[in-house]
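4.2 Preliminary Data

To establish feasibility before requesting continued support, the project team ran the inverse folding procedure on a target of 335 residues. The structure was first converted into the token representation described in Section 3, and no sequence information of any kind was made available to the design step. The complete token record follows.
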């Protein structure tokens, strides 16, 4: 995994532990020999889940133990400050009401970090790390259309309140390029933190946004899908130019269903987005001029999906999801 996927003609399946009924949702890279992927394992009954974390040491991927949760749980997002400072977020519980789950890697082991309990419950979908004392996580409050936003100040996690969160429909992804430039996206809203206040920013409807990446105050990208009519859903990309968000032309996979679930940027001319198209993996790359579809494998005959992607300036690219035959298992792609 050392050269850009577009230079090699695509991504390939990377050997990783077989974990039955598992999927990987988020991934974060500190270095080419220090990469994390997180997700969950579904019980045979389908009624409970347990958290899953895998790590790449430059040679092999391995499952790393996570804290045992009495009611089960799942992890949807991961972000890293350093090799000994990694954060993962999700939900605790297997049936609603969930409670937010936050875990931390200190270089040796994962531990559960207290999160303020919510009267109605809720869970976290995404996390971004600016520094060791400036971490943001976003999600949704159970049984509501209100968004959940939490912040780590180096000592404790706290729930942040803002009128912008009411009725925002829950948040799926978050990204920051500085303490005063943070973007969060969800089903019905795009929110921005300017260092003092969260506010709602207008965006073209009716797009469901699942991932976002921020490069500068004048350059951010978001991905998701748009329902065109009762039978057609199409992967969509939006771009922030410093003044407004707009739909950006990206390749049409040419089927009735496609979606982009995750996005990661190395630079303004090296951005990756991943998702699915009718049971097949979907990978797209921005080279500074245009988006194009990149070859990605589909090992499972019963369906293949990508949920998260991470990339480094050294050329390393890792995408994670699941692949299904009789059952589903975690899928890792790399270049």
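Position-by-position output of the design step:
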């Amino acid at each position: 995994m050392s050269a850009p996927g577009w230079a090699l003609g695509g991504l390939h399946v990377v050997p990783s532990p077989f974990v039955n009924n598992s999927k990987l949702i988020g991934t974060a890279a500190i270095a080419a020999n220090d990469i994390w992927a997180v997700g969950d394992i579904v019980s045979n009954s389908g009624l409970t889940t347990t958290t899953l974390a895998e790590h790449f040491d430059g040679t092999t991927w391995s499952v790393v133990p996570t804290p045992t949760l009495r009611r089960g749980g799942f992890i949807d997002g991961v972000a890293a400050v350093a090799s000994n400072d990694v954060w993962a977020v999700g939900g605790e519980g297997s049936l609603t009401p969930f409670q937010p789950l936050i875990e931390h890697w200190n270089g040796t082991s994962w531990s559960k970090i207290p999160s303020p309990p919510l009267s109605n419950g809720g869970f976290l979908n995404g996390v971004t790390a600016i520094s060791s004392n400036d971490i943001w996580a976003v999600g949704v409050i159970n049984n509501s259309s209100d968004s959940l936003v939490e912040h780590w100040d180096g000592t404790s996690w706290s729930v942040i309140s803002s009128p912008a969160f009411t009725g925002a429909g829950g948040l799926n992804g978050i990204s920051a390029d500085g303490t005063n430039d943070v973007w969060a996206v969800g089903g019905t809203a795009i929110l921005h933190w300017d260092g003092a206040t969260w506010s709602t920013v207008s965006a073209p409807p009716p797009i469901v946004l699942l991932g976002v990446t921020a490069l500068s105050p004048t350059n951010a990208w978001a991905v998701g899908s748009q329902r065109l009519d009762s039978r057609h859903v199409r992967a969509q990309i939006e771009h922030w130019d410093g003044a407004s968000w707009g739909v950006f032309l990206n390749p049409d996979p040419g089927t009735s269903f496609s979606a982009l679930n995750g996005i990661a940027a190395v630079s303004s001319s090296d951005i990756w987005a991943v998702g699915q198209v009718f049971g097949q993996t979907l990978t797209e790359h921005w080279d500074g001029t245009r988006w194009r579809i990149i070859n990605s494998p589909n090992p499972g005959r019963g369906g293949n999906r990508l949920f998260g992607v991470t990339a480094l300036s050294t050329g390393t690219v890792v995408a994670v999801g699941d692949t299904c035959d009789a059952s589903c298992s975690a899928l890792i792609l790399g270049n």
